[in-house]
């Protein structure tokens, strides 16, 4: 026989937090799709920055006279060096890494046990929303700040400004749509985090209630075990071990009722055993 089969479970313990909200599955689906798209877009941006750094740029000044076969390598080296000193390239790299980290945290936070990753994901989404708003203000509102930005030796920032001037409406709508998508994702993440937190708090309440019922049931069984012998050393040891006041047992109505029932069911416990 298994040793555990000799013991009886006092109170069934709740297995873990259970999400009962019907909104949780569609929220998880939306966040999973968004984070997959965000990870793909971040990887594409990172690859684009790497291509800009590695590929030669024809807008750079032509190198001096070189032997045939070395001009292309010299031009590529100059382009790579200029791109490494270009602040838009570093800004694009940081934005891509931030987006990739946000997507990974969001995919990990879909698990109910990783609420901290989900909260980090929501905070990063808010940061991305602020970056979108800053880009909109810089490109379309506060145009005076363009002249105060550092010089770009690779010519990436002037190229961005030229493209924005040629396709102003398209760029503006794309930035607004991306910002709204991030806002919706942040709201969905916050709602899912609230659902997970509610389930966790309900599970804590169930555990506390189960612990209270266990203590009450243990106290009642201790009453039956030590009935009539509250002053004995064994009863005092049990009462101190389980933090149960044996004097309160005998003074309570419940204890009197249990003692009377015990006396009726086992009449020999009183006289004969005491006589022995």
UniProtKB/TrEMBL annotation:
Keywords: Membrane, Transmembrane, Transmembrane helix. The keyword Transmembrane applies. The keyword Transmembrane applies. It comes from the Eukaryota. The chain crosses the membrane at residues 29-55, 87-110, 122-142, 175-196. This is Uncharacterized protein.
């Amino acid at each position: 026989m298994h040793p555990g089969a000799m013991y009886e479970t006092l109170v069934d313990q709740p297995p873990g937090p259970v999400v009962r909200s019907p909104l949780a599955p569609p929220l998880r689906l939306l966040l999973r799709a968004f984070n997959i798209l965000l990870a793909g877009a971040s990887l594409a941006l990172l690859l684009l920055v790497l291509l800009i750094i590695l590929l030669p740029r024809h807008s750079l000044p032509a190198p001096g006279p070189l032997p045939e076969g070395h001009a292309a390598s010299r031009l590529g080296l100059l382009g790579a060096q200029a791109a490494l000193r270009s602040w838009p390239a570093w800004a694009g790299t940081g934005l891509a890494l931030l987006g990739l980290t946000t997507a990974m945290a969001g995919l990990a936070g879909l698990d109910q046990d990783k609420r901290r990753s989900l909260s980090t994901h929501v905070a990063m989404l808010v940061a991305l929303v602020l970056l979108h708003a800053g880009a909109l203000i810089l490109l379309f509102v506060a145009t005076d700040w363009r002249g105060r930005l550092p010089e770009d030796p690779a010519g990436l920032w002037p190229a961005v400004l030229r493209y924005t001037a040629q396709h102003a409406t398209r760029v503006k709508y794309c930035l607004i749509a991306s910002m709204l998508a991030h806002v919706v994702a942040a709201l969905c993440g916050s709602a899912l985090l609230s659902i997970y937190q509610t389930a966790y708090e309900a599970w804590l309440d169930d555990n506390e209630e189960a612990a209270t019922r266990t203590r009450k049931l243990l106290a009642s069984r201790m009453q039956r075990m030590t009935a009539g012998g509250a002053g004995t050393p064994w009863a005092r040891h049990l009462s101190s071990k389980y933090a149960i006041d044996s004097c309160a047992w005998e003074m309570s109505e419940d204890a009197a009722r249990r003692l009377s029932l015990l006396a009726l069911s086992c009449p020999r416990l009183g006289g004969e055993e005491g006589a022995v």
